[in-house]
């Protein structure tokens, strides 16, 4: 089994720094999902691991072995690209078996391995076709088959399902999870799909601007984001953020001014922190499902309903406050709020996050943590 250890990894293209001091340990058999906005360096990190880019600084190890200078095809790593990158003039069978032919494996063995992989991916009936004669989902299976057949220690997936329609994505997601359970291989998977990240990952790694912001299990990141960026990135619909400053601090509560006369009182669960003092700028975070209609508790906001999204099982309503800030409210069931009408909502006190002026999460004081 295979651990992957990345230490102090840096990468720049010319004078543009793309990755800064990346440290990441992937356990043997772990399914790690890398997420982050477009351009944050996810593909570059995968390409460095795969050996498709030169490492400028730092090391990558598989097990005990440093692989910085090992040729890509000798690393025991297979990568699946979003673009599939199949050879158009070869049949499915030839595409899947290509690397085995290059490695001069006996043809009977190649046939057997290709057959086996085709069976796993349920594409046996497609073996004689060319990529041009396949649907997007079928091509993606072939690309995955080409990775599996090499029996790599580590699989790298770069947004492999992004080009598929929604239904097929869900289906392929389940199949990839089954495949991971069966192969028990170490996998690093890049996606910008929230649901994919939360459902597939043993560990999620959130990146921004070439830096790892936080890593942890999906639930750890969802419950305890280290900063506003991670809080906003993990979970759909997105966490609400209300910006303001503290006007009054008591043992029991914090009074906030959110601008243009909008005030909010929240229970003081952050006692004793420097960042929670009179005049300090803060940001309140609350997930849409933790906001309830009506005037319960202290943290009440009044505004006007602006848009209502009927999701069938749930209703997502957006309310605009008098200071033009928005808050989204996710209710179970079907609610027919009328846009343009006044509305009152309350924040569930135990679900409120507080971020400081540097957008870092302010930890709850011990008694509430
Ligand atoms: N070969 C390259 N030459 C110059 N800049 C590159 C090259 N490859 C990637 N970049 C830059 O590196 C940054 C990270 O890119 P990438 O790793 O593809 O991001 P992601 O996959 O997270 O969207 C981007 O700003 C991109 O423009
Ligand atoms: Mg990319």
UniProtKB/TrEMBL annotation:
Pfam families with a match to the protein in the record: ABC_tran (PF00005), OB_MalK (PF17912)
GO BP annotations listed: carbohydrate transport
Alphabetical list of InterPro entries matching this protein: AAA+_ATPase, ABC_transporter-like_ATP-bd, ABC_transporter-like_CS, ABC_transpr_MalK-like, ABC_transpr_MalK/UgpC-like, Mo/tungstate-bd_C_term_dom, NA-bd_OB-fold, OB_MalK-like
A single cellular component GO annotation: ATP-binding cassette (ABC) transporter complex, substrate-binding subunit-containing
Keyword vocabulary terms for this entry: ATP-binding, Nucleotide-binding, Sugar transport, Transport
CDD domains named among the record's database cross-references: ABC_MalK_N (cd03301)
Gene3D superfamilies named among the record's database cross-references: 2.40.50.100, Nucleic acid-binding proteins, P-loop containing nucleotide triphosphate hydrolases
Membrane topology: Peripheral membrane protein
PROSITE patterns noted in UniProt: ABC_TRANSPORTER_1, ABC_TRANSPORTER_2
GO molecular function: ABC-type transporter activity; ATP binding; ATP hydrolysis activity
Main location (coarse class): membrane
Subcellular location(s) of the protein: Cell inner membrane
Ranges for domain ABC transporter: 4-234
Protein family according to the UniProt entry: Belongs to the ABC transporter superfamily.
NCBIfam families tied to this protein: PRK11650.1 (NF008653)
Protein name: Multiple sugar transport system ATP-binding protein/multiple sugar transport system ATP-binding protein
